[in-house]
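ok, trying the design again with the full structure, not the truncated one.
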């Protein structure tokens, strides 16, 4: 029989460290963004704004499933009275992807419904709205979660979807290039040769050629150099602190791929990726603006893909976003989506009715007035 424990204390959550990754790697939800190193670091940096609601499923004492959840209050004048059920990691400037429950492979049909039943029935008093973001449509748990909410009369609603391109890696760099168009191959080769004419190209890897602290500082500098005022990454103090801490934890595990790109001893670019579960995970980068026209970003990706192929990695995952460069390098797509579901409580029914009434009123407003009304709504938090 499946027994469910609900953890609502951060100290008690910390005691799951010994079983967390082992269970994750026995599941079909295995993702870097669900590892203990990522989740616990996130909680250390951002957790003071949230209440943990982590469900642990056990079968005869063995942990067979975890739902890594938390509760947050809305930020507006009205929504502050509403409690949102979220995956740990949502809702902040750090944006993890492929979030999910994780359950022993093959036992999802048994364990996931038990987790959902407890969440809705026994802990239904703790939340009004569930927002499950960044779930893969191939999630082994999604169908069971959808069915559980549908049985309660509030089916999960699809809020948005995004493409996640990825490249399958063959046995050699030459084979990878041959799988691409002639134009692609010429472009990659041309840009690399153009940069090589300026001097020797060298990649400096963290912990082998450069210290983590130095590489991280250079990454931040080059990211700001690349994006200027338009950038969103490495801006807030919490964001900077989170990634500094998580890099320190991922490095000893062999999961960090932080690399500096030098041309004739000049540092021109930095790339911050991950290597986990037999694949490379594309993340952030930055470079000197004068190298923009030389397509330094594409050259760097090629170098890291070649590095990954040489070490037996089978995929480069570009994660969410349909950017053209991702589609050029990738040969396949995953789909990732955000879902919303409502709890059947008096407070949630009242809030939902208010939302529906507000939407009806807004629909009656002439289009040229809606922008002004939206500004007022944001100001008032309604």
């Amino acid at each position: 029989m499946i027994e469910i424990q609900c953890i609502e204390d951060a100290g008690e959550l910390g005691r799951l460290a010994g079983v967390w990754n082992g269970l994750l790697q026995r599941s079909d939800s295995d993702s870097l963004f669900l590892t203990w190193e990522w989740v616990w670091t996130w909680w250390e940096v951002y957790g003071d704004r949230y209440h943990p609601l982590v469900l642990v499923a056990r079968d005869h004492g063995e942990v067979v499933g975890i739902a890594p959840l938390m509760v947050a209050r809305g930020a507006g004048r009205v929504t502050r009275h509403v409690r949102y059920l979220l995956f740990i990691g949502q809702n902040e400037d750090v944006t993890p992807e492929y979030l999910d429950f994780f359950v022993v492979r093959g036992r999802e049909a048994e364990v996931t419904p038990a987790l959902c039943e407890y969440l809705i029935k026994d802990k239904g008093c703790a939340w009004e709205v569930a927002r499950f973001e960044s779930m893969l449509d191939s999630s082994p748990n999604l169908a069971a979660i959808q069915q559980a909410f549908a049985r309660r009369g509030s089916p999960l609603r699809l809020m948005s979807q995004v493409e996640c391109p990825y490249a399958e890696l063959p046995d050699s760099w030459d084979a990878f290039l041959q799988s691409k168009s002639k134009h692609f191959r010429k472009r990659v080769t041309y840009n690399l040769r153009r940069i090589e004419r300026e001097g020797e190209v060298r990649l400096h890897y963290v912990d082998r050629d450069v210290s983590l602290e130095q590489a991280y500082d250079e990454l931040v500098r080059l990211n700001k150099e690349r994006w200027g005022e338009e950038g969103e990454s490495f801006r807030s103090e919490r964001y900077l602190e989170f990634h500094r801490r998580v890099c320190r934890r991922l490095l000893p595990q062999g999961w960090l791929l932080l690399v500096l790109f030098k041309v004739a001893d000049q540092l021109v670019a930095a790339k911050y990726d991950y290597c986990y579960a037999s694949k490379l995970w594309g993340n952030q980068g930055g470079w000197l603006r004068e190298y923009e026209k030389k397509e330094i970003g594409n050259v760097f990706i090629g170098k890291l893909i070649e590095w990954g192929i040489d070490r037996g990695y089978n995929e480069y995952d570009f994660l969410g976003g349909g950017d053209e460069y991702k589609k050029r390098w990738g040969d396949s797509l995953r789909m990732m989506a955000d879902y919303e579901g409502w709890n059947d409580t008096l407070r949630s029914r009242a809030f939902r009715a208010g939302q529906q009434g507000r939407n009806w009123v807004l629909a009656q407003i002439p289009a040229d007035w809606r922008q002004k009304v939206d500004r007022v709504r944001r100001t008032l938090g309604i």
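Keeping the full-length input from now on. The mean pLDDT is 91.
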